Automatic annotation (TrEMBL):
This is DUF2892 domain-containing protein. It comes from Agromyces bauzanensis. The chain crosses the membrane at residues 18-36, 42-61. Keywords: Membrane, Transmembrane, Transmembrane helix. It comes from the Bacteria. The keyword Transmembrane applies.
Amino acid sequence: MTQGARRGWFASPRVRRVLARIVVVIGVLLGLIGLLTARWGLLFVGIIVIGLGAAMGPARIRRD
């Protein structure tokens, strides 16, 4: 990528933070539903989604 190239809207730390929080909330809800209904697949998916949301945070942006 060239020096003057414009970055996409996803590269903004504010957008990344909002999307990461939304993904983490979805993961928490899936985990809670899985725990309360004893559906262990939902609990497992909720844990995975929480981890993905944490990895999407603004701290993961790599500057050139």
